[in-house]
Specification:
The chain is an alpha+beta fold. The chain contains one helix and two strands. It has one domain. A hairpin with a 2-residue loop joins β1 and β2.
Length: 50
């Protein structure tokens, strides 16, 4: 199974080769994409300089 998404103007592709069922693999891939999404959100926060 292979999925591709765009984060921070970068193409992120995850490919999993496994004998596990598709649903389990998809959950793991989505979890990984969630991590990329969180990094993207943090990087877009405004920077405060005191």
């Amino acid at each position: 199974m292979k999925k591709t998404k765009l984060y921070m103007d970068t193409v992120v592709e995850i490919e999993v080769i496994s004998s596990k069922n598709r649903e389990e693999i998809e959950k793991k891939i989505n979890r990984a994409f969630t991590a990329f999404q969180k990094v993207e959100q943090v990087c877009r926060l405004p920077v405060r300089v005191n």
